[in-house]
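Structural biology now treats backbone shape like a language. To illustrate, our science desk offers a sequence and the tokens encoding its fold:
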Amino acid sequence: MKFRTEVDINASERKIGTDDCIFSIGSCFATEMHDKFSEGQIQSLNNPFGTIFNPYSINNAIQQIYDAKEYQESDLILANESYISLDHHSSFDSRFAKQSLEQINKNIEEANQFLQNTSFVIITFGTSYIYEFLPKKKLVANCHKIPQKFFEKRFLSNQELTESINQTIDTLKDICKKDVKILFTVSPVRHTKDGIVENQLSKSKLITAIHESISGKETCHYLPIYELMMDDLREYRFYKEDMIHPNSQAVQYIWEKFGNAYFTDETKLFINENNKILTALNHKTADEKNPKYQEFLEKINQKILYQQKKVKHKIFG
């Protein structure tokens, strides 16, 4: 007798190896996945433009990375006593234009180099809504707490969604490794501020556009992350206190489902051993000079050296 609807991720023929590079971009769930890769010491780069949610802005970010664009002060606006890029998350905002530009351009350069060695790209869309900044007639990635009167909110049309996704695929196939796999997901985080009905409509538009865009493309796949949360883990005990974001238990469950479908056996073992090392490193003591604690640290260092021999990139750096 079954008491729940279990959702599976189809096993991938092409598996993630210990030396593969993983690029992720999109909503905050993309960051959750990136954190798991980082903890397991797999090479991963996430959201060089900061957290962004809609396919149009994600496509724009990837195009700017591909072009290795160098942002200038003329690309910024001054609002709320900060220099702001409407293409970026508010974490790039600064009182000094030079400071904002240094971080923006550094991230673009790093992402451009990383993408050239990337084998897997994970794109997590959060919403079909977009805002237009009326003074510049520009579609933006983030409103940066600028007063609402300066924006117009609307849904991206199906054509805008599919064009953005298709352009993203073409750009990534040109800059990444030839055998790159592009994995599309829809964030399970509900945008309740848009309204419950509106959020469902927004997510459904994303799912439809993804499936239309990737149909017949062997390099592209849809990961049912949204369905895992909505249908498999459909109880509120799998949410944080805000009843919106998946909690750590839910993220771990989704991560394990993903790993079973996409990791080689070697990668699974590598990540599990590194997670054990990370747990040990987080262990604190009141007496760091205690001989037993020093012996404990030496054993951890030996394990790190053993793990390091398995990969070319530096781990626990």
